[in-house]
Amino acid sequence: MEFHYHIEGGDFSRAGSASSEVKKILKQLNVDPRVIKRVVVALYEAEVNVVAHAHEGNMTVTLDPGSIEAVVEDKGPGIADIDLAMQEGYSTASPRVREMGFGAGMGLPNIKKNCDRLDIKSVVNAGTTVKMTTFFTG
Amino acid sequence: MQVKDIIQALQLTPRAGANGLDREISGGYVSDLLSDVMGHAREGQVWITIQAHKNVMAIASLKELAAVVLVRDRLPDEDTAAAANDESIPVLSTPLDAFEASGRLRDLLREG
Question: By CB count within 10 A, which of A113, A124, B95, B104 is most buried?
């Protein structure tokens, strides 16, 4: 099963709506609530990253019997140093975004903690692809 | 303990989402950083914060929090209030600051 969502860059009023749709579907499919809780955190952070940093993006969620894979792909500034971006507390968010309580440098660490496999590929001035996999067992 | 049971002690005024006042409270979480709440708050907690914009409700809904308490008499933005009504998650204002509101909530939860 595969689901697609579009994410608009800069539109904070809609931030979280794709994650919310995925959550509803996972609940309907009776996925383990503990898995849903983790997936939702990772998806939300990835979605907000697109809204806060990129021009636009797409979320594709693939549901298999043993795992959930989510790919969030954006067109945007990219990440120059992924290791640095993974560090808790590091952020390039604008003052406006920080004032809202985002941009604390916790997004990517939250993603890492809440999925079993994380793969980030980025090209500066082109975009970023974040692939998150969560397994149902273990 | 339900959300309506903490109204008096925390000097709360319901601003939106009043149809969720019977939600059960499991605890509390205090933070103004959204990713901190996303990463660490747990289902059924009351979120005490000064942030009043709509993204607060996205998080409250995704994390299935019991309620949002806005400190120092902050009012929810219009779209925040609308989302609170849609999600049946109460948003309440208190004249107290975050320290005092948290202390009183903790006392209530300890007393059971």
Answer: B104
